[in-house]
Write a structure and sequence with these properties.
- The chain has 17 helices and 10 strands.
- By secondary structure, it is an alpha/beta fold.
- Strand 5, helix 4 and strand 6 form a beta-alpha-beta unit.
- The N and C termini lie far apart (about 40 Å).
- The protein binds iron/sulfur cluster.
- The site of iron/sulfur cluster has 14 residues, from helix 12 and helix 13.
Length: about 400
């Protein structure tokens, strides 16, 4: 069946199903209220699933689905994946300038089905050198997405030099100017930088950021600076969205997590439910690369029940015992302990894009972002780095592979 033929038939069924599901929860998506995670009561009749459980996104007044469809690296067949995710009840979609053509594929979808726009929460991002630059990038983002407004515009991947932005007058002015255009509903930033705790603490202090997207792990040390910063933001009503919670972390089977298995959950479903158990987080951005992953993760959201501490610790032990490769993000203590300028956490992220995501292009981009000094781990005490890392990443085994694959 050709793409054109399938899309016209699907379009009628798609719209019937999607609209029916959305009609049942429009109040929720467009800013109704519901505690913790709520499911829609009205079952749509034609093919689509009800909208997934939602949660309030900080003090924005908007409810977003727990599952946020990430599109980093433009997964193959994204056009079809977007529609499948929508029919599976996902209503939160995430993209960025620099995610290859993901924005344009979303734009084509919205052009083909304009009725969808008002039923979804759409986030995009842009890297900028100064906060005021973002205003100049806005129309570019709108054009790529073929829409006249963005629900959430992120300053993409705040780096160490930008740590004070979230409490700066310049970023506050830029955020207000963006909202005043009437083309951006909310403003935020994403981060996986070693200064992540300070950046998030600064956002609580600044008080003008609506949403933060960050790498997060459900067993984050409760006494850590990052955890305290998350508490401060949550108390200020700043929305929190997690990312990179599965990549390189599900290198174990259900046998290793019997209590999760007993609930009929896969390791990936268990990890997502562990994140959603932390009510500070409104959603998890997951790069959904095939329809099986979409259905598996949507099922995890639909069947979400908070996990017990024992269940979360069981997952933690299984992840740590399985040689995880993705750095869940912290203050970069691995490099400090190893006595190196190399950004070991970022090298681990590039490796995971290559090996777990199966996205060599994205891996090369992440590697290319690092300077020669930040890539050079030679002479570093990798045993000390592993010891310091609360994710116990095996740098000695991984880094020669990073050089072989990306060097
Ligand atoms: S210590 Fe571990 S978690 Fe922290 S930055 Fe390094 S690799 Fe990432």
């Amino acid at each position: 069946m050709s793409e054109a033929h399938s899309s016209s038939v699907d379009r009628r069924v798609f719209l019937q199903a999607g609209m029916a599901a959305t009609a049942a929860t429009t109040g929720l998506i467009a800013g109704g209220s519901a505690s913790s995670a709520s499911a829609s009561s009205d079952e749509p009749k034609a093919g689509g699933q009800p909208v997934l459980p939602t949660r309030k996104l900080g003090k924005t007044g908007v409810e977003v689905t727990l599952l946020n469809h990430g599109t980093v690296g433009e997964p193959a067949g994204l056009n079809r994946l977007l529609r499948t995710a929508y029919l599976e009840g996902v209503r939160y979609f995430d993209t960025a300038e620099g995610y290859r053509n993901s924005e344009r594929v979303i734009g084509d979808w919205l052009a083909a089905m304009p009725e969808v726009r008002k039923t979804i929460f759409l986030a995009t991002k842009h890297h900028v050198g100064t906060p005021s630059e973002m205003l100049k990038k806005l129309d570019e983002r709108l054009a790529a997405l073929r829409t006249d407004y963005i629900d959430l515009l992120f300053f993409h991947g705040l780096n160490t030099a930008q740590t004070d932005w979230p409490k700066s007058k310049e970023m506050k002015d830029a955020a207000e100017a963006l909202r005043k255009t009437g083309k951006v509903r909310f403003v935020g930033f994403s981060t996986h930088d070693a200064k992540i705790a300070e950046q998030i603490q600064n956002a609580a202090e600044g008080g003008f950021i609506d949403v933060i997207m960050l790498k997060y792990t459900p067993w984050l040390d409760k006494g850590s600076a990052l955890n305290k910063a998350l508490d401060a933001c949550h108390a200020k009503g700043i929305g929190l969205v997690s990312m990179k919670q599965l990549a390189g972390q599900t290198r174990f089977t259900a046998q290793h997590v019997p209590s999760i298995k007993a609930k009929g959950l896969t390791p990936a479903q268990g990890l997502l439910q562990a994140i959603w158990t932390d009510e500070r987080f409104s959603a998890s951005c997951v790069t959904l690369r095939n329809t099986e992953q979409i259905r598996e993760n949507a099922d995890a959201a639909r069947r979400f029940e908070p996990l017990t501490v024992t269940e979360i610790n069981e997952l933690r032990d299984a992840v740590l015992a399985s040689n995880p490769t993705m750095c869940p993000g912290c203050d970069g203590r691995c490099s400090l302990a190893a006595g190196t300028q190399a950004r070991l956490g970022d090298l681990a992220r590039a490796y995971t894009y290559h090996e777990s995501h199966g996205m060599p292009g994205l891996a090369r981009e992440a590697y290319a972002e690092l300077s020669a000094e930040e890539r050079d781990w030679q002479g570093a005490d990798l045993a000390a780095a592993r010891e310091a890392c609360h994710h116990k990443i095996d740098f000695a085994a991984m880094l020669p592979e990073v050089d072989r694959l990306l060097g």
